[in-house]
Amino acid sequence: MTSIDLSKPVLVTGATGFVAGWIVKKLLEKGMTVHAAVRDPENAKKTNHLRDLAKDTPGKILFFKSDLLDEGSYEEAMKDCELVFHTASPFTSNYKDPQKDLIDPAVNGTRNVLEQANRTASVKRVVVTSSCAAIYTDASEVAHKPKGMLTEEIWNTTASLDYQPYSYSKTLAEKEAWKISKSQSQWDLVVVNPCLVLGPAVNPETATSESYTILKQLGDGTMKMGVPNLGLGIVDVRDLAEAHLNAGLLPEANGRNIISAHNTNMLEAAKILHKHFGDKYPVPKKALPKWLLMLVGPFVNKMITRDFVKKNVNVAWKADNSKSIRELQVSYRSLEETMVDSFQVMIDHNLVKG
């Protein structure tokens, strides 16, 4: 079992990200020193909210210039750290070259960070943010799994460079992490596998995660005619940050950990928003017909292929989150709280118009 000294600094890669922002906040609130690895420490728009967080907490934050594809660039940031959170990885559907824009930064970035851990004598534990995408590609796969649900023992075998390359990137990156972990005995690896992450961003005005794009589209009229009723899991970013913290600090934390609060679908999430905000905002309350998505989906978004629609729309999704509750002590909030808080933050920052 690994015990972490709370007086030592903690490295967070991709510290300005959607999930990382909440991890940083929780670490600062515990009075810890955060080494924030970012591409440009001088970019005030991206970093000032983290500096402001530090002012209001007992913790301390220091910024380090690092890049996923720049070998050795995490050396200074990792110095004296016993605990490393590797959250940096692209999550976007706006890519031109999947190999260059998704696979390379995910896999090479993971290798870069973990090989630096091998060279840094102080490191005792690395927590990698993977994804349920490293477990499955399409919701239709769930019914064929043991017990009819996704578990930590399952690996994604259906994604490829040509079909769902994001899922492929997460699978390859996590496999690389386990490969490097098993080649050494200095530090242990704990992996966090979240489903779709929603919730209020620490810094909504610069949030670039695909999760936030989905939230915005639910409220800005993009989906006013209806939502693609995708079967999926949803977890609140605040609960996910707590899962990360416990994955790093609980001595008994181990292995892969599915972080998913709700076995749900996009329609249920949209209906909650419509109930609370539908009188002022063009939030959808019905699902688009599957045949229509099959017809026009590929022209609207390159990820919405006919094959994807067939395997994910109106298809139930289910994952077993019992390990996260039992071993990482995660207490999940309601889907209603997640959706309402998410949308209210967007309203407060004028990111959606009524």
TrEMBL record:
<dbReference type="GO" id="GO:0016616">
    <property type="term" value="F:oxidoreductase activity, acting on the CH-OH group of donors, NAD or NADP as acceptor"/>
</dbReference>
<dbReference type="InterPro" id="IPR001509">
    <property type="entry name" value="Epimerase_deHydtase"/>
</dbReference>
<dbReference type="Pfam" id="PF01370">
    <property type="entry name" value="Epimerase"/>
</dbReference>
<feature type="domain" description="NAD-dependent epimerase/dehydratase">
    <location>
        <begin position="10"/>
        <end position="247"/>
    </location>
</feature>
<dbReference type="InterPro" id="IPR050425">
    <property type="entry name" value="NAD(P)_dehydrat-like"/>
</dbReference>
<dbReference type="InterPro" id="IPR036291">
    <property type="entry name" value="NAD(P)-bd_dom_sf"/>
</dbReference>
<protein>
    <submittedName>
        <fullName>Nucleoside-diphosphate-sugar epimerase</fullName>
    </submittedName>
</protein>
<keyword id="KW-0560">Oxidoreductase</keyword>
